[in-house]
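[[Sequence with tokens]]
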Amino acid sequence: MDSLATHSPSGVQLPPARELAAETGILHLGIGAFHRAHQAVFTEDAAVLAQEPGWGICGVTQRSSTVADHLRPQDGLYGVLERGLDDPALRVVGQVREAIVAAEETHRLMERFAEPAVRVVTLTVTEKGYRRGLGGGLNLTDPVVQADLAGSTGAGGAARSTVGQLVRGIQARSHLSGAPLSILCCDNLTDNGEVLRALVTDFCAALPSAEGDPLGQWIEANVSFPSSMVDRIVPATTDADRADARRLLGLTDEALVVAEPFRQWVIEDDFRAGRPSWERAGADLVDSVRPFEQAKLRVLNCTHSLLAYLGALRGHESIADAVADPDLEHAARQLIAVDVLPTLTQPPGLDLTAYGQEVMQRFANPALRHRTLQVAMDGSQKLPMRLLGTIRDRLAAGETPHWAGLTLAGWMVFVATGRDRSGRTLPLEDPLADRLRAAVAGAESADGIVDGLLGVEEVFGPDLRDSAELRAALVDSVSRLLTEQRSAEGGSA
């Protein structure tokens, strides 16, 4: 990719003059495909349109060095292959200037946290990356969190958890530069900025008072935690994607990401030390993200989960394949219209009915090939954010959440059987995989599966566990899904 200096393929959008991103102003934790296809693109476009230098990105890999290994030889350059209904389009992004492997380069990470030029920290570490406990606060019994709390302090303090890295980084900043900072969560958590602020507070409170109290006071005075809502479908990159990119670019891109043309970013405008002019690139800067966030989680993410679990059970490989199944398309549309929309507050300027229709059109994009199994990962972490609020609101309104219950039933059968209707294995990739398997061990009936999984307190509160109406709806849906699966298996024997 660094040979782009002498290679200018036609029809490919090349990055702007890299002087605009020469200075690092954003530190990003979790530089996976989504960040590179979303926030980095917004930031580069904003820098160009506003002619604002100083917002280069330092990306941090949390668990694996793979992304850093791909970006470093390419001088941080990578392609975003957009797949819509027309021919794919490719742009090369140059906003990422550095990649750090947190597990191997703690001192370097702390140095970046402390630099006054770094004014915004962004995060995409997925829901499970925050290590929350049953009540939503920081899980202080988590071994990684405990190790971070017991570790050395200050600029050299090693930390493995996301919240631990944040607190140790803020601590280094307070000691070395004292410059204010904003921390912008971009993960699918309700009120994600306030959630992250609370987790950081929990970590500080668990430190010895001589260390935690002054640090907590410094954070209160100098650090903001704005909320945000992000939206863009970014499937896993395939060999076919890489081949298409090479055809367009004339070079091999090891860091390629794939995305749909649509993108959205809603941001609470609360920054202590400035920010990029993201609104110039199409982001919405608002006073409150919450109504947009709820609409996205419940309309898009919840429906995504329905199509993922029910689609995987039927043997559909992609979300587009699932939408092409008339039964599943009907279920998805009913979920939005009957169960989800009545629970939402209308966000300013957003027609919720039209938004639901647009979401279904995006899911039906056959060029995107977003795998059902990719969306189905980490259900124990995702469903409480995407689905359970809708179920609670429908029950509180005196309504049976039939379609939301069907989504939950699909997850339950996915967990309990571990196979699709043709007998193929469905891998359970979830941080609570062992706990979930134990909950349904030996359960073959719908009653046993529902009772076993509703008893997993890490996912369900006592209100849902003890709801006779929800249980009845789930037993009915799980029974029908099991019958459908067993009938299909019998027919193929």
Summary: The longest helix spans residues 468-492. The chain has two domains: 2-286, 290-492.
